[in-house]
Amino acid sequence: MATRESQSTKIDQPITMVVCVYAPYNTSGLFEAYKEEFLSLVRTAGIEYECEMSCKIRSTIRAVFLTKGKLEDVIELASEHKVERIIFSERLTPLQERNIEELTQAIVVDREQLILEIFKKSAHTSEGKVQIAMAEIEFLKTRMSGKGIEYMQQSGLRGGKGPGETMKEKTRRYFAHQIHIAQRHLDILQNTREMQRKKRLSTKIPLIAVIGYTNAGKSSLLNTMTKSAVLAEDKLFATLDTTTRELYLGENKTIGSNQKVLMSDTVGFISQLPPQLIKSFRSTLDEIRYAHLLLHVIDLANPLWGHHIRVVKKTLQDLKISVPMIYVFNKIDLVAPARLDMFRMTILDEYQPYVCINTKDKNGVKELRDLLENHSFTRED
Ligand SMILES: Nc1nc2c(ncn2[C@@H]2O[C@H](COP(=O)(O)OP(=O)(O)OP(=O)(O)O)[C@@H](O)[C@H]2O)c(=O)[nH]1
Ligand SMILES: [Mg+2]
Predict the structure, then answer these.
(1) Domains (ranges, CATH) in the chain?
(2) Ligand 1 within 6 A of 365 CB?
(3) Could you please report the per-residue DSSP string of 11-54?
(4) Ligand 1 pocket, 220 CB below 6 A?
(5) Which of 96, 103, 292, 324 could make an S-S bridge to 206, C-beta 3.0–4.6 Å?
């Protein structure tokens, strides 16, 4: 069922429509909460929109993604509002994107591009920026026959190697060259990081990586535990760069008394995170892969918390990362006490070991420290 609302648009932005689709592969279970997350992505990207439409579909269509009736609704609404740009909540294939663009005469931005935009805005370090650039080139490569060529032309690349070289070949060569440059830059940065990591490992100081769905409270937890001031914001993907801080534990059976451990903040996960973004965030992935322990932070106040846990665990599984984990159920100040008691009695027992916490007033921090002090910080490798 489609719903339509209006919002004011900024003059310098194209007239935009957002389309939230609940597709058959979506396992979140709660359409409204899924839509809220999508709109939050749109807001984080700084996009204002004129109209919105949301719909559930039972199947996806290879050429245009949406089923016939829903596609007609999109075309009609786009024409009614003279829409110039349509933001989709889902990942689209280049073919689907092109076809919808032709049918609506509007630029189509899919989930992948939307997340890339947000990452581009949040990257501050040179490593972060090169990683995003690489992910973006990889993305454009897949759109070679359309936007890839426009991008190449905008970048001023003209002329080919010989008279027989097609535009497609030129584009391919251009992207290969760009990727090569970015990769070399990234290799230098990552070699430095690798050396730092090896040095750190040689000191045998255990590493704890704080991981979880975006906006769960990972940076807030790092701040609370290590008395730091890492940026923590009510915004998706506020953290894109890894930060490591020292944490002193009173006593620990494997590392002795008054010993320090290192705690690293990481980039948040989200459902359908573009694969090239995951790959390009090697520094975050290495922090997780080589950690002795993961603190998996979950926003218990978010109705999709169970889905978030599944997304994070599936992502780790896909990346073949297997490290011991403590579940840190956060934001319990926003959960009604009766509901929290019920969680503790029933559902939370599925997640062991766990701690319920509120990073704002430090409720549960002592319990988490106790868990860390009793943890065996050993790695097989
Ligand atoms: N009420 C409440 N809010 C919290 C708590 N912990 C974090 N927050 C808020 O949740 C929002 C997100 O917190 P962050 O620490 O930035 O979350 P994150 O997981 O690092 O987010 P990304 O880096 O964007 O993935 C911020 O507005 C925090 O102030 C908590 O225990 N209770
Ligand atoms: Mg953060």
Answers:
(1) 16-109 (3.40.50.11060), 121-185 (no CATH), 204-373 (3.40.50.300)
(2) no
(3) TTSPPEEEEEEE-TT-----HHHHHHHHHHHHHHTT---SEEEE
(4) yes
(5) 292
